[in-house]
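Exercise: predict the fold of this chain.
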Amino acid sequence: MKIYIIAGEVSGDQIAARFLASLKQRDPNLEVRGIGGSLLAEQGLASQFDIKEFAIMGLVEVLRHVPRLKRRMRQIAEDVRAFQPDVLLTVDSPGLSLRIHKMFENAPFKKVHFVAPTVWAWKPWRAKQMAGYLDHLFVILPFEPPYFTVHGLATDFVGHPITELLSYATPELFLETLAGGEGQGESRTVIIAPGSRKGEVSKLLPDFLTVAKQLHADDPSLRFVVPTVETVEPMVRAMMAEAGLPHEVIVGQALRWSAFKVADLALVASGTIALELGLVGTPTVVAYRVNPLTARIVRALVKVEFASLINLLNKRAIQPELLQWDFTPEALLEQARRFLYDQDAIAEYREAITQTAAMLEAPEAGKSPSDMAADIVLDMASGDDVTAALDKDPAS
């Protein structure tokens, strides 16, 4: 089997790498080519382009990059044609992924996308459009299939990829990395996660650091841990060094999850990391800020009450959200202190999210989301009929 994989961002690279590892176990003769980051590289994929080129945040911010991005998409399409895959699989990054698929609307190979765009939040018409050029969709939230199956798109809820990583959430690895291997003693740990794009780091980290300095003044024993990724690591290290706080900048999946398990508090950019931290029980405050014009457009279009998936799944505000104009150092400091010192608030938070992980597990017993997706892709490549969720009760 030949598969072309496109993962345009770090989050997609993580999902795609686990999927590829599962697929390789099932097909030792697999041929793979595509676009990805360091984790896909570890699985043997030599990326045709650096994924940093696609890591752009915001509706307004992306405009000046449009000519370059269009050129890259044409080059990717040419590479796909040259490779002649059995399956074209894209992961997340719908702005890139779905445009690529549309270029191959009538192509002979199977077209699959992993991680649905949030049509339940905004741009609902995309679901019908996707049914016109995709063969299969893998979704990671249990309520998503009906949004797509109603338009005839074969869709499977395979579980959330985060559930594959929970086994990493043990404290030992992180504690062993601390200076001198002596552990953290009586200190407490605060996670600061300002995002995986340069625009996010520049907009969020300065205010996170303002709050961190005040928290450190309250309690000089606090240690700050900053998980980051290759796309912004140099920038994050430089800003943290300038801040003059006791800190550890960490890179790597296992170390990241180990640190999450140790942490007493997390201040994070809105995104997947808030779900990750929630699932291990770390009290987490979510914040985000974009260009004001982008924010006004999004506010007019988005139809959901919450940004945090923990909150969406539970239909209430469990993780405090400070978005755009509500995101101020003062508001962030208030929520941070509450989760550091109010034991009732901490206990209530942890109790509220205990059921969330069960909602996100793969529906097929004994299989991970990657395993389920790999099995379906192999069936598709072999020509087997895959009806997916089309014949299922959406509530099942």
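Check your answer against the key: The domain at 166-357 is CATH 3.40.50.2000 (Rossmann fold).
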